[in-house]
Fold these 2 entries.
Entry 1:
Amino acid sequence: MNSIIKRIAGHFLIKGDVVDVDSHFNGLVNKTFLVRTQDANGYYDYIIQKINTYVFPNPHRLMENIVHVTRHIASKEEHNQTLHVIMSSEGKTLVEDASGCYRCYHYLENAHNYQQLQDLRQFKEVGRAIGIFQNHLQDFPVKLLYEVIPDFHNTPKRIKALKKAAKVGIKERIKETKNEIQNFLDKKSFLSRVQTALDQKEIPLRVTHNDTKLNNVMFDQLTNRALCLIDLDTVMPGSVLFDFGDALRVGASTKPEDDKEFKHIAFDITRFIAFSAGYLLQANEWLSDKEGDMLSESVYIITMECGMRFLTDYLLGDKYFLTRYPKHNLVRAKNQLSLANDIWQKLTVMQKIVKSLRTRFEEIVITKLGRDKENCNL
Ligand SMILES: Nc1ncnc2c1ncn2[C@@H]1O[C@H](COP(=O)(O)OP(=O)(O)O)[C@@H](O)[C@H]1O
Ligand SMILES: [Mg+2]
């Protein structure tokens, strides 16, 4: 593989000759290589990724999205911390040959990421990173973006898919999960609220990342503050509520997504506070009232949506998600249902927290504006 990467690297506009290829990087979707080159002036590092064209069948359109978004972020004053696409010598975003389809990025220096959440401060930084990302892109013409996975967070369509699976799926599995199917369908109208708000233009279409996991946030090695989001394959038009909700679904659960101890699965409110504070520090100014009001419920909706997807896949014979044992998808679905139930119990508290954070941050902005005005008068 390394000799292939060496050859591929030669097609990108990078400095020097390849002296080392390191493929130890974690990643579930694409294959990632750290490529070190050398010329008379020194060493340079680059990232080359082999794109998983099974998951992303249109890598060219996907790369157009990434180029649009990263250029827009880089154009923002003082903020050049972002992925930066390196073109091929033919002026293309991809190099393709019989072995696959490859892209190249600048290596983010003095940065690292984590697989496991360390503490609350770190989760606040995850919120801040998502806020910064959306902050830079809130004036981006979202219509330019291609919908990489159509209807990714269209919850009403996910409900329909579950209903269909409950008819045409594996008979024993349908019988076995009668209660779970009903639990999801009982909340049908509530679960459609984000999509309905989008359809009725009560909330705007914005740029969304759609994979706001901890390990897609790069941190500064020295300060341990969040630098930027990586893994931009699923950048698409959508609601910012998707990114907020999904980050909390994963990051604020007391148990992993496939833990079987359903009774012990809870939504950690202190993590919710930390994350929301980091996020709103960045997003409060431009977030609409309606979006602000819906932040908490989006966590519930996204969790239920994810649970429905696991259950649908279970009913249809585990075609989509990778499973390690026969009931893996069922465990995941029950896990998400337990988490969603706990979020449901805590919704009012969560809404109060968001409200008070938003008021507090507005006060800070007003005080700051007042101070700036005073300074101007001096
Ligand atoms: N530009 C970059 N600079 C430094 N490290 C990177 C860069 N891009 C990716 N990585 C590393 O490679 C890993 C996998 O990349 P990612 O784009 O998240 O792929 P996947 O879709 O497989 O998760 C990341 O978790 C990160 O450690
Ligand atoms: Mg990743």
Entry 2:
Amino acid sequence: MENMERIKAHYGFTSGDVKNLMSLRPVMERYREEFVVEFYNFVKNFEEAEKFLKDEATVKRHQDALKVWFMNMFSGEYGNGYFTELEKVGFAHVKISLPAHYVNAAFHFVKTYTRRILHKEIQKHEEIAFLERSVEKILDINLDVFTSSYIEEEKKFFLSPKVESWLIQMSDRFSHGLNLILVLGLVLLGVMVIGLFGYDFMHIFQSGDFEKGLLSTLGSLLMLWVVIELMDTEVKHLRGGKLTVKIFINVALVAIIRKILIASLKHEEVEAQLSLVAALAVLGVVYWLIARVEK
Ligand code: HEM
């Protein structure tokens, strides 16, 4: 366990600290029970504490585990076994998706609490400062190992970090490129619909059939409106906005309205017209429901 020796070296954890912590064991033993009570008084302020400490059995298991953990800090044994145990505890928290912030805050509490004990139990100021340094070191080492568990969890990869990040970057770029092509397609479509609108408009006067000409022009105007809406949504999406489902219902609604207009011109069968009206009604209800939810 080269890792463990490295951590201890980084925190300047020496045999002097081992001695200090061991000397504190009898003092801390007296606070074992109170520590858990105070720890729980502190933790219960966390908004979601109950979600994790969900029943009496879990609380009991946690409290017993906490007492053992607390006392192990003053056991004088900081070898492989100690670190393996800490890693296990770290992963136990990761497994239940306990926010890392809760663990950090709880450590802050333990630091304050142990400081309080030292000030209460030890008279000499220099001795307090000396012992306090060792307690802080072991607490920081504990938090380091706990935090590593969270980082290890985040570091899980299927292939390799490099390949995965490259793949993600590439697909992100590709999807951005596709979105740009989509905008270009919509611009072209817009130009074509303007052409259609012009054609329909001219047709009003050329064909002499005023009603047909007007309805066709109205149909092409509706199409133009949909293209504008689609373009607007796409541009907003490219700028990081949310894509709304409503726009797709909009497109379907306009397509059906246009079909109804044409069907009325062609004097199609009543059944065909009725089915279009029914589809329009259904889409109308869906549109209304989505609009309500989005609000
Ligand atoms: C100084 C901070 C903490 C320490 C030292 C600590 C210690 C422990 C230990 C020793 C275990 C047993 C791990 C195992 O099964 O091997 C554990 C598990 C657990 N901890 Fe913590 N804990 C801390 C903070 C918290 C906080 C803030 C919460 C919740 C708000 C929490 C909730 C739990 C839960 C739910 C389990 C699993 C209990 C079970 O089902 O057996 N812990 N913790």
